[in-house]
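Worked example

This section walks through a single chain of length 110. The input is the sequence exactly as stored; nothing has been trimmed or padded.
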Amino acid sequence: SYLVILLGCLAGVTPLEVMLGTAVLARWRRLLLALVPGLALGVGWDAYAVHAGEWHFAARYVLGVRIGGLPMEEICFFLVIPTCAVFTLEAVRRRRPEWRLGDEPQAERE
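Given that input, the structure is written out below as tokens.
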């Protein structure tokens, strides 16, 4: 099911928090700033597409819990996948500190 795949994604990257000390969860405000735009756009787009009849979700892959007309799993998708991306990015940043992203504090760039 859709939810199992999302849980698998989280299970794959969450250990990075402990193993590499990515501190993603400790910087939850920063994580939220990364998640909210994609969540708003993604859910809005999907809600429009479902309402317009352009998109649907197969009942056999979702639990049936709907929020605002969308399956719970679809809303979770817009939270889980970007969170996994942030975990991965921060893990790479930990392993390769010389790779600059441009959001480092000024003192770190010099």
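What to look for: The longest strand covers residues 66-67.
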